[in-house]
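Shift notes (night). Ran Uricase while the centrifuge was going.
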Amino acid sequence: MAIVLGPNRYGKAETRVVRVTRDGGTHRIRDLNVSVALSGAMDEVHLTGDNAAVLPTDTQKNTVFAFAREHGIGAIEDFGLLLARHFTASQPAVAHARVEIREYGWRRIAGGHSFVRDGGEVRTALVHGGEAESVVSGLTDLVVLNSTGSEFHGFARDGYTTLEPTDDRILATAVTARWRHRGTTAGWDDSYAAARDGLLRAFAGTHSLSLQQTLYQMGRRVLTERPEICEVRLSLPNKHHFLVDLEPFGLDNDNEVYFAADRPYGLIEGTVLTDDAPAAPAAFD
Ligand SMILES: O=c1[nH]c(=O)c2[nH]c(=O)[nH]c2[nH]1
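Came back to this:
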């Protein structure tokens, strides 16, 4: 009995590329998850460890970012074809390239550079009965992004600080918000829609010096506009978007191509409340 190598493929899975295109103050974003798998004459690497035919998966990832800068991102079918043809045409050992792309849809909020991601959002409610009734409404996984209008600088530094200050970055978060009602008879659906809308408008309209500052503005907006609500608690993961260094490929990157990291993430949490909010110790538990 002989043992032989069967079908195989390799590549970089789930490269998260975000491409921002500017038309004056109006931005468009394309947000992709790209997985490349190459196959062909790859026997030697498996059988002897000879890597001569292996285009590194790291290179495949770089190609996704560089192509996003060089060619832009139109229909994902075109972007997939571009990548697949590149790998098969440029690498003699690669007979076949599989490129799978998932695109996350975004809709515009207010202004030219604020977006809310399609789908995934969940409305929540937490009610306590008994002697002291309480109602907490909320939402989770409301994913929003500003493609400009966000800075972060002037922060404390110590011997472990490497973060560069920035005056223009992407600010994105998946909002979890819970807000406590003063009473138990609000028009719940209208109140919910208005609170959600206030959160979105505050996120979009705040020129942000930190996600903490944006958090406070979001809570404040709800409390200012909705007298039936007395306390807002927000949990905002900072969904980091890192500008990709394309210089090794002779390309500039003027805030156009970003790597959307999923972890670790900053987690910014806080409560904003009115000073006359009735005490309700158990309401959020
Ligand atoms: O808005 C931010 N707040 C922080 O506390 C922080 N920390 C960090 O590294 N980046 C950011 N961004």
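The chain has five helices and twelve strands. The helical segments are 43-47, 57-71, 76-90, 188-205, 211-225.
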